[in-house]
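Entry for inosine 5'-triphosphate complex. Fields follow.
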Amino acid sequence: MNIFIASANKHKIEEFKEMLEPLGYEISSLNDLDEDIEIEENGHSFEENALIKARYIAKKFGIIAISDDSGLEIDALNKQPGIYSARFLGHDTSYDYKNLEILKMMKDKKDRTCRFICAIALCYPDGKEYVFTGSIEGTVAYAIEGPNGFGYDPIFYYEPFKTTLANVDPSKKNQVSHRHNALVKLLEFLNESK
Ligand code: ITT
């Protein structure tokens, strides 16, 4: 079965491929299209933004589409950057800079709890739509650590690994991540509706 992901984020797509290709799914995404598609994410939650992206593609091309809206919630920063994770401090700002700024903002904070959230929407061309969510709990690290992953992974300390998500093999992250947890629910749903 081919799954179209309404995403242009190559890191997310890579993670979806790693998790879904061994199960026999073929993955394509916005990056495989000849045209540039910009979808305005003007929802107020991860779920709403995920639906906006998958719905747009399902309608435009008459295909089944999934999407991923995700981000980092930091409790001591009123759950920022949250749904603005990609746009936080500017869409094109490097994550080295964004992560350093977050460490500065967290300098005197005792509560360092945070979580990654992922909402995956599944939309059908006939208008049926579903959302599956997943999360992973961690703490904001005290320093940037690790070469793997993307985005905020180098500052996301995950206690069971005793290090950041960027400091483990991607396959390890993909067994516990917010994206993995949401994807498991999507796959259960697809299996049940076969
Ligand atoms: P698409 O909308 O095209 O899928 P995007 O990057 O704009 O790509 P989002 O609006 O969902 O996607 O923003 C997600 C941001 O949250 C992402 O750019 C990272 O900054 C952060 N993020 C999400 N999942 C992450 C993960 O597994 N590890 C680290 N950071 C993550």
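NOTE: Residues 58 and 125 are 5 Å apart (CA to CA).
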